[in-house]
Amino acid sequence: MKHPQIDTNEGADLSHHLSTEARDRVANPLKDILRVISESPVTDLISMANGDPHHSLYPFRQIMYEVPSVQDTSDPVTSWRNNSGLAQIIHSYKDEECALSIRDAFPYTRAAGLKQCRDVITNFTNLIFTPPNHHVTLTLGNSDGITKVFRLFGEKGDHFLTDEFSFPSMTNSPLAYGVKWVGIKMDSGGIIPEELEKVLIKWDEAKSGRRPHVLYIIPVGQNPTGSTLSVDRRKKIYAIAQTWDLIIIEDGKSTQRHPRTSSDTLPADPYYFLQYDIPQTNSTPADPDEFIKNFRSTLIPTFLSMDVDGRVLRIDTFSKVLAPGMRLGWITSNELFHLKLADYTDSSTQPPHAFGQMFVTEMLSEHGWKTEGFCRWLKSLCMDYQRRRDFLLDVFKREVESTGYASVNCPQAGMFVWIEVFFEKHPRFVRGWESESGGSPVVARTNTGQLLEELFERLMNTQGVVFIPSSTFAIPENPLWVESDGHVPLSDRTRFLRATFGGTEDIIEKGMIRLGKGLREFFQN
C-alpha cells in the first residue's frame, strides 16, 4: 500500500531533517489496509479482514461522565471543588446517538487517533492557534509526543539546541540513542536570540559534528525558570530558524495568555492555559463565538501560528487542564511529519486508549461543553491557580523574603515559582577558583553548586520540605561552543530552587515557613 499523496504546496521541503530511522521505517501493512478500508466509498462494506472482537462482546453499553456545568457560573472550578455548583451528565453509548460511539471507539484503529477525536481537537487547534496547513496526531501525552519527535529527527552524534535550564524528563530522552544537547544562554526573557545565532555561526563541524538542526523550546512559562519569550524574540528566533534551517519543537504545555500592556516582555511560568493577571471585563459575552474570540485574543502568538514553512511541531496535552492520568495529547505538524509519526506509532505504542478519546470527543462536541465551554473551564482554572500563586507570594514575603537570603519571581502562568538564593551571603561561599579551572570557560569558579546541594539536603532532612534544585535542569556546557570572554559558568549560576503552588494553602504555608526557617539556620551556620 502507498501513502496518500502529500500536498507539496504546504511549505518548504523539510524531508532532509528526517533521521535514518524515520526514513527507513515503513508503514505497518495491516494498519495501512485499515486506512484503505476507511477510505472505501462502499456504504455497506462487510469487513472480515481484522481480528477485532465483535462489539456485542464488549462488557459495557454506556459510559457516563459527571462533569461541572460550565454555563451556570463564572467560576465553575471553585463551584466544582466546593460541591456547590451544578453538574452536567455526558454519555457515551454503544447503540444510541453520541459524538463517538463505543462500537466505533474500541476496535483496533490507526495511529493518528480516532477520526472523531482528531476532528474536535483539530477544530480546537484551528480556533485557538490558527496554524497554516498543519495536521493533528494524537499521542499518549506530552512525554510520548516529544520523545517520538526527537526520534523523528535525531541521529547518533547529533546535537539539539535548547534553553540552558530545561526540563530533564524531556532532555534525558534522546541521550540513549546518541543525541547531545547544547544549552543556549538565557536571561529573564528566555533564550537570547543573539546567543542562539552565535552558537550556530561559531559551530565547527570538523570538531563537533554536523551543525544542530533542531531547537526544543518552551517559549512561554519556561520550565523551570518561568521566563517568557517576547513576540519580538519569537520573530527573531523563527527568522534564525529559517536562515539556518532549524526544526522548532514547541513544547505547548508551556505557553501563556498575556496581559494587554505596552510591554513586549512577558514574565511567565509553565503550562499553556494556566495564565494569570489577565484584565477582566465587567461582563462575559453570551455569544459562544464572541467568548472564544475574546479568549483567543489574550493568547500570546505561538511559533505554530507564525509558521509558514512547516518547520514547527507543537506538542500539546490535556494533563494539566483535565487530568495527568488521561495520557492524551496531540502533535500539530506538517503533513510529512504527521505521516512519519503515524508510521512510528503504528509499529510501537499504538494510538491512545479509547476511553480518553471518547471523553474528549464528547466534552468538545455538541453533547458536552463544546469548545466555548472548555474555554470557560480554562479561564476558571486560571483564576483558581492565580489565587494559589498569590497566596504563596504573600507567605513568601512574610516568611522568606524577610530573611534577606532569597527572592522569588512572580509567574504569570503555570504551577511553579523560581526562587533565587543569595549564596554569596553564606559565610562559606568561595569565589575565585580561576586557578583550578585550567583556563576553561565552563569550569566553576565558585562553590555555588556545593552550597545548593547542601541546602537541598538540609531543607529535606532537617526541615521536612522539598524543592527541586536548579542543577537538576542545567544543560552541561562545552567549551567548544561557549565564548571565553566574560562568560560566567552555568554551574556558578545554579542558585535557584523550583517550588510549586499546586497544593493546598495549608501545604503552601507550611512549606514557606519551613523554607524561611531552613534558610536562617543554613546561612547562620
UniProtKB/TrEMBL annotation:
Region span, Disordered: 1-20
Boundaries of every Aminotransferase class I/classII large domain copy: 93-249, 302-494
Matching InterPro entries: Aminotransferase_I/II_large (IPR004839), Class-I_PLP-dep_aminotransf (IPR050859), PyrdxlP-dep_Trfase (IPR015424), PyrdxlP-dep_Trfase_major (IPR015421)
GO BP terms in the entry: alpha-amino acid metabolic process
Keyword Signal applies: no
Residues making up the signal peptide according to the UniProt record: none
CDD domains in alphabetical order: AAT_like (cd00609)
Listed cofactors: pyridoxal 5'-phosphate
Keyword Acetylation assigned: no
Transmembrane segments: none
Single annotated GO MF: pyridoxal phosphate binding
Protein keywords: Aminotransferase, Pyridoxal phosphate, Transferase
Family: Belongs to the class-I pyridoxal-phosphate-dependent aminotransferase family.
PANTHER family: AMINOTRANSFERASE (PTHR42790), KYNURENINE_ALPHA-AMINOADIPATE AMINOTRANSFERASE, MITOCHONDRIAL (PTHR42790:SF19)
Protein name: Aminotransferase class I/classII large domain-containing protein
